[in-house]
Specification:
126 residues; mainly beta; 12 strands; Immunoglobulin-like; 4-stranded antiparallel β-sheet; 3-stranded mixed β-sheet
């Protein structure tokens, strides 16, 4: 499932965030890779972010402050976005993204719990 920003072709520089199959460390866990996504600045700023669901189950991603760094209106990010098994979610990075560190949540139905990153996965601008 792609966002309305999918019209923007995946072009360099872009980043894929992989949501891999679970691994067992005292219980099943899913680790977001990379755990912190750095958007960069100036000519090195990412143009596109794509989340890839390899978990084996549906994933719900909630990006509550994404209007600060992705193209779209604040209302576009109020509800979680669903990514089916093997699917992707693609957004264009705003050329006017605001500096900051933005947490987001990834709920993985395969493990009936949240994916992990650096505690919560995040996006850092620049």
């Amino acid at each position: 499932m792609d966002s309305p920003a999918v019209e923007v072709a995946l072009e360099a520089p872009y980043e894929r965030v992989i949501l891999p199959p679970p691994i067992t460390i005292d219980r099943e866990r899913i680790f977001v890779n990379p755990p912190t996504l750095h958007l960069g600045s100036g000519s090195s700023r990412l143009k596109t972010i794509q989340w890839v669901n390899q978990t084996g189950g549906e994933v719900l991603i909630w990006l509550p402050n994404a209007y600060n760094y992705l193209e779209g209106n604040p209302g576009d990010f109020l509800l979680p976005k669903s990514i089916p098994v093997g699917g992707t979610l693609t957004f264009a990075v705003s050329p006017d993204c605001k500096d900051g560190y933005y947490h987001y949540n990834v709920f993985c139905k395969r493990i009936n719990g949240y994916a992990e990153g650096n505690s919560e996965p995040g996006v850092s601008c620049p």
